[in-house]
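Why do we care about 3D structure at all? Because function follows from shape, and shape follows, mostly, from sequence. That is the central idea of this module. The next example makes it concrete: a single protein chain, its amino acid sequence, and then its structure expressed as tokens.
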Amino acid sequence: MSSDFIIRLIGMIVFSVLGVYGGVYLGDLANINPTPNTLPVEVYAVTVGMVGALAGLILSPLLTTRPIRALRSVLGRISAQKLLAALIGFICGLIIAALLSFPLSLLPKPFGSIFPFIGVLIFGYLGVVVFMMRQNDIFNIFSSVTQRSGTAGSAQDDKVGFAEGRSILLDTSVIIDGRIADIARTGFIPGSLLIPRFVLAELQYIADSPDSLRRQRGRRGMEVLSQIQKEPSIPVRVSDIDVEGVREVDDKLVILARQMKCPILTNDYNLNRIAELQGVMVLNVNELANAVKSILLPGEILNLTVIQEGKETGQGVGYMDDGTMVVVENGKDYIHKEINVIVTKVLQTAAGRMIFAKPEDH
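And the structure:
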């Protein structure tokens, strides 16, 4: 049974009991000076009790579960840092109001009894607003003080502590890609990897897909996550934080990244563009791979194996160790052979870097 149904039953019972008591009270009042048309007390009790039961059946969720769900939805969209900042600000505001309550209570009536309560409202509100506006500065001060006062630990502890200072949201595509595990081991990711529960749900849905290719990709993503979690140098957190009212995983990631002010790690081109348009920082694995590819200049010599024909007549195609395509002019005759080629031109395209070359003996 759903929680709404249980709450409706409880509300119906409670309101019907209250209605019976109210009906008895109204019946007693009506029968103080009875007339021939006056109804008995029992009729009042039953009628008002039935009205109360109907009201409880309808109004109970509106008074209990619906406000709680709305509150959970609002709190779920707020980051933990904002909630903590608001709580600290509220406590500080209450402390200031408590310190001022005694001198304010000495004012002449009625100000002495009203101003302390008004001070609680004003300073509590100001504390929440100020601390939420300056939350980043406040937490940066706390982190710097903690780092200065902390004792010197091992290099591994320092590395993990540095990484935990910032969260990076992981997209499903980058988990399935698998390169994130190798990148994270190098220590070039400045933060802890945050995986929302809805990303895991999408990954599980892909792993259970009837399509064999999608199923293999989903299972590979599960294996990559398992490898990352076993690495002590890679801080990984799985969070239940969610975005209510949004169904698409990409939209949820962008909203979370904006709320938490953290980047998204992905290799999805569409998510990359959508996030950038909304002012969200994106760490794209494909862009990183293109950036770290070796830089070649015209005239340099490469050793590679021509594996297939090119699009143009007489061309051959080979690949470098990092996956960069090399188009070899007049390389058709060298297919399945390892040769030295001279770089003639290097092109940077949206898909990556492309190198044109010719055989050394030509």
